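On clarity, I found the account of how folds are encoded harder to follow than it need be. What matters is that the chain and its backbone geometry are given together, residue for residue. The format is easy to grasp once an entry is in front of the reader. For illustration, here is how one protein appears when written out as sequence plus structure tokens.
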Amino acid sequence: MATFNLVQAVFDRSALSLTEDVAVCTMHIRKHIAFAPDVGPITDTERADFTTKFTTFFNAIKGNISAAIKLRELRYYDVPSGPGIDMGAAKKVDTLNLVGTSGGNALPPQVALSVTFRTDVRKHWGRFYLPGLTVTQIGAAGRVNSATCTAVATAAAPLCNRGGTGANLTVFSRLEWTDHDVTLVQVDDIADVIRRRRFSAPTLRATAAP
């Protein structure tokens, strides 16, 4: 059994364009135990706990996510004991099929909101890029509005909480092959561009002869 898991949050974008591939947010989790050292192998119990937390997170922010975006599943992979070892097949796949509820027009799919997970070591901060923003979340100056940033940061913070018994999001270092716990969640009002998420093909090519 592994001490850490890589988690992929898989977002279905086919309602935007039928042949479009998925958008994926990746993160790492570890086990935490009440009144005991926070070290131990991750089992399906901890994975189920994190799925509950991530479901709560998405439901809290879904009003900021396009109704054409669906959180399809969470996929859990054991992080191997050292570099260069194959991670293997998913240990658990939780099907969710949770849909955004923003009625605003979808922004281009390469536009994403950066959710940063700060740790005690600056070079070991982590982040994922949340897809599915709509025009409703953008202010007149082209920045993500403050209500959206605050809502996402507030909803993401419990993913990192180490109270009780279960699993929490942590920042895994592939240089040190260990983790750094999150001390603060930060969401800036600058939309990021993830080029690999842009539409794979146009549906229209306008041309004009000189």
